[in-house]
Amino acid sequence: MIKQIQKEQNEVEMEVEKAMRGELAPKKRKEDENKESRIQNVIADRGNRSTIDFLRGIVHNLSL
Questions:
Q1: Domain count of the chain?
Q2: Which residues contact 59 (CB under 8 A, 6 or more apart)?
Q3: Least buried of 14, 18, 27, 38, by fewest C-beta within 10 Å?
């Protein structure tokens, strides 16, 4: 679970660096858009989940 979160963090940091250099963001694939939408749903439902269930929901969607 932690390794998957670290992998996602590294990818986000690389994207931030690209944006800071002025590179255009690549067009998102439909799969990535769906994944982002599912993660946003988990985040929006944070108040109804325990911490461990919240983290499991995030990791599950990152590993799909």
A1: 1
A2: 1, 4, 5
A3: 27
